[in-house]
Amino acid sequence: MERFDVVIIGAGAAGMFCAAQAGQAGCRVLLIDNGKKPGRKILMSGGGRCNFTNLYIDPAAYLSRNPHFCKSALARYGQWDFIGLVDRYGIAWHEKTLGQLFCDDSAQQIVDMLVAECEKGGVTMRLRSEVLSVGRDDDGFALALNGASVGAKKLVIASGGLSMPGLGASPFGYKIAEQFGLKVLPTRAGLVPFTLHKPLLEALQALAGVSVPAVITAADGTRFRENLLFTHRGLSGPAVLQISSYWQPGEFVSINLLPDSDLAAFLNEQRGAHPNQSLKNTLAMQLPKRLVERLQQLGQIPDVSLKQLNPREQQALVATLTEWRVQPNGTEGYRTAEVTLGGVDTDELSSRTMEARRVPGLYFIGEVMDVTGWLGGYNFQWAWSSAWACAQDL
Ligand code: FDA
């Protein structure tokens, strides 16, 4: 049996970064992945440009049953540390919006950088490798792989969540946690588009492709101000992806389609200046014409001129456009979700090292655990920060 100081399962963002750090610190590291390429999600991310971190990393941007868990790792290895690494590799980047940092050229540069860092640490990378079983032995852990048996003093699980099974996602990490008696919190898809009930979907399908700035509020009061996109299946866009992580089945969300304007004041002003102007044309000054036409066909916007719009109708119209209550039918699920909420309970882990409190030598890093960030580079930063914290202990 070949023996290593550390075996890391999952050559994604967290696994590669952890392997590189541990290798460079002198550990003999084996990095295993079931895919044929490392970092497949990194390559897909940010539209191929990888939104690798955010300028405004803040523990408040992470969902977890224990909101304090992420603080230590984010403080010890933050966005500026990773930006420093990216800069050392001469990778050009830019801020797109809301502090989101993207490569100017390609996400491949981030993968190449991580591979180079692993090579610098002498990491052995074994791709297309299935882990058949994991057990304990006198020196730590014994793993049966397809075609080989390996031993490790320490075992790091970096196998990610369930989102995008096409990119290698698997419940492997949760199963290992359960095998060792650790609690796994229920999982669900996050950062995912909403699907709609049939009548509303049919009514809105004609709007597929229309995007508007919006403020969306969840039942718990959490709100995001970003763009909302109508799609053939329902609602998407950054505002919807963000709020999806805070939404529970059966709940309503409230949508303000005119976050930048005082609609009542605008209508009063327009009525004074152009009383015969149609309400439809007036609203089209503030919203996409297709959206206004569709809402009118749905009976949400009366077919009247401004002078015919009575105060009661105006009040109802303002409520429709600024507090539009939508009850999603569900989400598109793991197939299109960017992340998985829930996972290995952080109460089982040390927030300083990511080691399982009850299983010395076993670590969980990245998305497999119950820490999930907002859209915008927060999830990769959690991968880097948790991996770095773990590597210091290997
Ligand atoms: P990750 O999923 O990266 O890696 C896990 C690895 O484990 C995979 O390589 C998988 O093949 C391997 N594995 C799983 N089971 C295994 C098994 N049984 N045996 C061996 N190997 C196994 N985040 C962000 O901050 N900015 C962004 O721009 C984006 N964009 C984005 C786009 C898309 C399309 C998706 C799906 C996701 C994002 N994300 C994102 C989220 C981000 O990709 C995610 O949070 C991190 O990749 C999580 O890193 P991990 O290393 O924990 O898991």
TrEMBL record:
Keyword hit for Ion transport: no
Protein keywords: FAD, Flavoprotein
Ranges of residues in domain RsdA/BaiN/AoA(So)-like Rossmann fold-like: 5-392
Organism: Intestinirhabdus alba
PANTHER family for this protein: OS12G0638800 PROTEIN
Name used for this protein in its record: Aminoacetone oxidase family FAD-binding enzyme
Cofactor(s), by name: FAD
Domain RsdA/BaiN/AoA(So)-like insert: 188-339
Record InterPro entries: BaiN-like, BaiN-like_dom_sf, FAD/NAD-bd_sf, RsdA/BaiN/AoA(So)-like_dom, RsdA/BaiN/AoA(So)_Rossmann
Classification via Pfam families: HI0933_like, HI0933_like_1st
Keyword Ribonucleoprotein belongs to the record: no
